Each structure stands twice: as C-alpha cells, then as structure tokens.
C-alpha cells in the first residue's frame, strides 16, 4: 500500500538532488526484498489523528521542545576527510561496506517516509503529534541523505524516488507501528553508539569517516525512541494488560532474531571494523532489551541458556534457505528443499517465544 503523498514527499528529499544530473553517480538498483531487508510501513492515520494525548501530554510537549532545538542542524556536513576515503578500501571491504550503506539508507528513508506522511495526514487534528513527526522526518531525511552521499563516494546512489514508488508498504495498526518503530529507534541508537565507542578505542579500524558522525547521530535516534516511549504511555493500553504483553514479546523477538540472522550473515562488514558480529549483536540486544523495560510491560530473557543456541539454529537454517535459493533448481523443487528449514525456523521461533518473559517491574524497577 503506497501512501499517495509519499511519492510527492520523496521528490523533495534532500538526497536526490544529484541523481540523474551530468557526472552524477550511477543509480543503484535496490537490493532484492527479503524478510531481512528494511520494510516500508503505512498505518491507520485517522486512528492516530484521533488519539487523546492527555495522559502524557506534558512529556510529549517536552520532547517536542527538544526536537525544535534541532541539535544536529549543523552536524551532517561533509568535510575534507571524505575525499579519497572510498579509494582506500579493498574490494571485499568495499562490497560489504556499500551493502551496509544501502541497508542503512533504506531504513532511514523508510522512517522518513512514514513520519512525513504521518505529520501531513494528522496536521489539523493532532498538531502536537504532527509537529513531532515532522521533526523526526527532518532528522531521518538528513540521515538518509548523508548515507546516500557516502554511497556517491563509491560511484553509486540509491534512487529514493523509485524506491518510494516501487517498494511494497506493510500496513500495521498504530500500536504495532509504535512497538516496531520504538524498537527500531532504540536498537538504532545502541547499534550506532556501540560502533562509535568501539572505533574510538580502535581508531585503526575506522574504515570510513562516516563513523565520526555516529555519536550525535545516535542521539537523534535516542530522542525518536523516547518520543515513542512517551506516546505509548499516552496510550496506556498499548503497554498494559495481557494482550500488550504478548505483542511486546513478539516484537522484541522478531526484531532481535531478524537483526542477529542478518548481521551474522554479513559478518565480514563487522570484521572490517574489527568487531565480531555475534558479540556486537549480543551487546546491542542486551542493551535494547534493558531499555525496553522502561516502557514495555515485559522483556525477553536474553540470558536464558538456550536463547543464543536457538538464534544460531535460525542462522544455520537461513544459510540453507539461501543455498536453496541460489541453486538453479526449478521453483517447485526449491520450495520442497526449503520446506524443512521453514518448519524448523517456525519451531525455533515458537520455542523462543514461549520461553518465559521477564516482567519489566522485576527487571529494572529503578527506571520505571
Ligand atoms: Fe535515523
Ligand atoms: Fe530515527
């Protein structure tokens, strides 16, 4: 489902100015859609417009005031360090790094489209929320634009207008949008800050100057996450009661498992930064889980002895699925080959899901 205005919004995104102009970088075809690639979302705009914010209006006002300050207004400015930096990478590192840039750019851009569309659709009925979404769209456009410029250093650029029109949009009810975007903002914060801190300690692994920008960048994601935290508290039923507990568990698991499988499958990128993908993900998962306890009623028991054993089984099943996909076999044979791994993945996910979760008030009483 394509929000009709999204296409028009994309044409004003800052990152496309040079696409198609003489001497501009080649336009890169978007990566093939899989369960692991970033998604584009749409939602029930009328339901969000009608939301009563009174239960947590003061906090939302305060967050909006922070957004207005626009701390990173002058942050995303390229400097001389970028000149010639791309040429220094060897071909293998270059390949995995461009993939990283593309995935990151796509997910930042997906945030931009959703927030922009939300702010436009609810402007008259819910001005405070509309303003918050507009500020977040501003930030995400900057992030996506900055990443796309870095792709330009490698002679490539994502055609964001084409991406807007050609990607399929997943419809989520508002509360599911809140869970998914809250988690993606907070996980984004922990991912960026973990890389930044690691490279601060190991400057010899800083393969590209874009990482110097991560510290302030991740503060944007942190503020975005705080906004969704406050918004869920303004709609207390989203994070209260039995059904909310089931859904929060589901989203935590889906987000953690997807990230783990994807990062391990492109571990070469993390190796290029001197990081072990598995260790890096364990830190990011533990931190995001802990942060989520501030708003979600439950979090996962990521220290359960079977937690990572099961995620590893997903990793190996996924490798088999990719092998089957890559084989030249006819479609029906491929499906037959893949079937046992799909079933195995379903079973592992079910076991992970039914591992008893931890009530947040028991997990981190001090922050609630
Ligand atoms: Fe972002
Ligand atoms: Fe964000």
Automatic annotation (TrEMBL):
Location of region: Disordered: 1-30
Pfam families referenced in this protein's UniProt entry, alphabetically: Rubrerythrin (PF02915)
Chain ranges of the Rubrerythrin diiron-binding domain: 99-232
Metabolic or biological pathway: Porphyrin-containing compound metabolism; chlorophyll biosynthesis (light-independent)
Cofactor: Fe cation
GO molecular function terms listed in the Swiss-Prot or TrEMBL record: iron ion binding; magnesium-protoporphyrin IX monomethyl ester (oxidative) cyclase activity
Bias (Low complexity) ranges: 1-15
Family membership: Belongs to the AcsF family.
Protein name: Magnesium-protoporphyrin IX monomethyl ester [oxidative] cyclase
């Amino acid at each position: 489902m394509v929000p009709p205005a999204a296409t028009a919004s994309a044409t004003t995104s800052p990152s496309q100015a040079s696409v198609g102009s003489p001497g501009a970088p080649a336009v890169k075809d978007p990566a093939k859609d899989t369960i692991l690639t970033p998604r584009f979302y749409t939602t029930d705009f009328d339901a969000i417009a009608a939301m009563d914010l009174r239960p947590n209006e003061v906090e939302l006002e305060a967050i909006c005031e922070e957004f207005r300050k626009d701390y990173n207004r002058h942050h995303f400015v390229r400097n001389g360090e970028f000149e010639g930096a791309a040429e220094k990478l060897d071909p293998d590192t270059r390949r995995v790094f461009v993939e990283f840039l593309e995935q990151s750019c796509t997910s930042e851009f997906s945030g931009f489209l959703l927030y922009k569309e939300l702010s436009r659709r609810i402007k008259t009925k819910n001005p405070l929320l509309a303003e918050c979404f507009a500020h977040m769209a501003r930030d995400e456009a900057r992030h996506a634009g900055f990443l796309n410029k870095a792709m330009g250093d490698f002679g490539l650029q994502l055609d964001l207008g084409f991406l807007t029109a050609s990607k399929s949009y997943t419809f989520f009810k508002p509360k599911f949008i809140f869970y998914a975007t809250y988690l993606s903002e907070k996980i984004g914060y922990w991912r960026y800050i973990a890389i930044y801190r690691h490279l601060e300690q190991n400057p010899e692994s800083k393969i590209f100057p874009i990482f110097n920008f991560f510290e302030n960048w991740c503060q944007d994601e942190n503020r975005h996450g705080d906004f969704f935290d406050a918004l869920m508290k303004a709609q207390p039923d989203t994070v209260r009661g039995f059904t909310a507990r089931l859904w929060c568990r589901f989203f935590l698991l889906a987000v953690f498992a997807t990230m783990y499988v994807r990062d391990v499958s492109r571990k070469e990128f993390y190796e290029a930064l001197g990081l072990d993908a598995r260790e890096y993900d364990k830190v990011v998962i533990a931190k995001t889980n802990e942060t989520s306890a501030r708003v979600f009623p439950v979090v996962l028991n990521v220290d359960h002895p079977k937690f990572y054993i099961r995620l590893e089984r997903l990793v190996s099943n996924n490798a088999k699925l990719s092998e089957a996909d890559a084989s030249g076999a006819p479609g029906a044979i491929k499906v037959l080959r893949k079937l046992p791994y799909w079933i195995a993945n379903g079973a592992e996910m079910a076991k992970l899901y039914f591992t008893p979760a931890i009530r947040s008030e028991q997990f981190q009483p001090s922050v609630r």
